[in-house]
Amino acid sequence: MTARDLPAHPLPDGLSQQEIDSEVARAQAAAEPGAHHPPRDYPPYRSSHFRHPHRSLIPVRDPEAVELSGPAFGVTDVTALDRDLTAQHAGEPLGERITVTGRVLDRAGRPVRGQLVEVWQANASGRYAHQLDQHPAPLDPNFTGFGRCLTDDDGGYSFTTVKPGAYPWRNHTNAWRPAHIHFSLFGTSFSQRLVTQMYFPGDPLLPYDPVIRSVTDQAARERLVSTYDHDLSVPEWSLGYRWDIVLDGPCATWTEEEGDA
Amino acid sequence: MSHAPTPSQTVGPFYGYALPFPGGSEVAPAGHPDTVTVHGYVLDGLGSPVPDAIVETWQPAPDGSRTGLPGSLRRDPSSGKVIGRDGVDFTGFGRTPTDAAGRWFVRTLPPGGVPYLCAAVFARGLVHHLYTRVYLPDLLDEGAEAADPLLQSLDAERRATLIATRTDPRTYRFDIRLQGDDETVFLEFS
């Protein structure tokens, strides 16, 4: 048991942005320097309070662990249209058409081939096609906002979509999520599983958002922000963003020499 | 040279129209006589059910193979709709969103070679997913328990959180407690 002195209650409802910013600063000061992932106990994101374990994770070092293998996906699991989120309805969605392209790699820099990438996002107005999203921004009948693809032999993926809008949420007063696209990724092993969010460069909301700030290390946070790549923009059609993804965790072919300490 | 990993972020509240897919919980080929059901609740630190969590499972096939097979999300190329697994291949992968009561389930075949299913839990409020294991008591005779390095590393009380309870010959209960005195054992791989 590694019980710590944990606050019994989450932060109260209705804190100001300034109050949340102080909590963000406090959490950052308490965090492990250089941590790659957010601490699961992250008070400024209030709904984390009752949803994280208090005890330490148990390290599994068994080379025979099943988690060092993982599920497979193939041509039966995706269709050619799944990567184009603008082509799922009769008409064109509203918004700024973009392509998001990148590579999925493991910690050794090797491409993750033939694996499933799933994305979902709000529409250009900042509204999800989810009935529990009651933000008073319009739904777009021509946009659902999810897509899938398999990585190619180079680990590459690509989606065509519209740039999602920012939207409010109730973590604190005047809380707004910066524009983001949710990503779900599989590696060669189940232990490499990743669900994350991609952000856009220069978004003025990034410093105010406790979700991206839950990644307490600045260099790690920057790895969640895509790059505008003019060479990926298509004349008179779409703007291009690049975002490479590195999956953490040991994979099936991981060896001592390749692992870092 | 080691590449720095992309950080995790919460799955959030609005994945419901994207990640779940029809038949996600039905890993066993329909009607297979060896099918077992594992079900339970995902519970938070107050003991309240978590209605916006996703549980994924991964396991070897009954013959012990760990390569998995494609086809968990098999699609109809003409309509794009998910048409479900083909009833022949055992993909080894399951995905279940908890329902409004916080309950999850998977119907599968017992794994070959090991006594457990691997599980990953995602939820709103959880900034980084959690791994655990569902040990099936029927596969866990004394020898298997003594040979399992993870179970052997845990005291009896903690070990018990990883072992499903058989409620009838082919049904097992496995609650996932994210926090609290009887918190589930969660794992890390490094």
- Any idea what the radius of gyration of chain A is? 20 Å
- Measured by DSSP, the beta-strand proportion of chain A falls in 15-25%
CATH topology descriptor of chain B: Protocatechuate 3,4-Dioxygenase, subunit A
Largest sheet of chain A: 5 strands, mixed
**Relative strand content of chain B:** 25-35%
* Structure class of chain B: mainly beta
Number of strands of chain B: 10
| Bulk shape of chain B | globular
Given the structure, what is the number of helices of chain B? 3
Q: Which residues of chain A sit in consecutive blocks of at least 5 with pLDDT less than 50? A: 254-261
User: Most extensive interface, residues per chain?
Assistant: A-B, 86 and 75 residues
Figure out the total of helices of chain A. Answer: 3
Q: Could you describe the largest sheet of chain B, including whether it forms a barrel? A: 5 strands, mixed
Q: Which keywords apply here?
A:
heterodimer; A: 261 residues; mainly beta; five-stranded mixed sheet; four-stranded antiparallel sheet; 9% helix; 22% strand; disordered C terminus; B: 190 residues; Protocatechuate 3,4-Dioxygenase, subunit A; 8% helix; Protocat_dOase_b (chain A); Intradiol_dOase_core (chain A)
Structure description:
Chain A: Residues 100-128 form the Intradiol ring-cleavage dioxygenases domain. The complex is a heterodimer of chains A (261) and B (190). With 261 residues, chain A is mainly beta. Helices cover 9% and strands 22% of the residues of chain A. Chain A has helices spanning 17-30, 210-213, 218-222, and strands at 58-60, 97-106, 116-121, 146-150, 156-162, 167-169, 175-177, 180-185, 194-199, 227-228, 239-242, 245-247. With 190 residues, chain B is mainly β. Chain B is globular, with a radius of gyration of 17 Å. Chain B has one domain (15-177): Protocatechuate 3,4-Dioxygenase, subunit A (Sandwich). In chain B, a hairpin with a 6-residue loop joins strand 5 (116-123) and strand 6. Classes of the chains: A mainly beta (261), B mainly beta (190). At the A-B interface, strand 1, strand 3, strand 9, helix 3 and strand 12 of A face strand 5 and strand 10 of B.
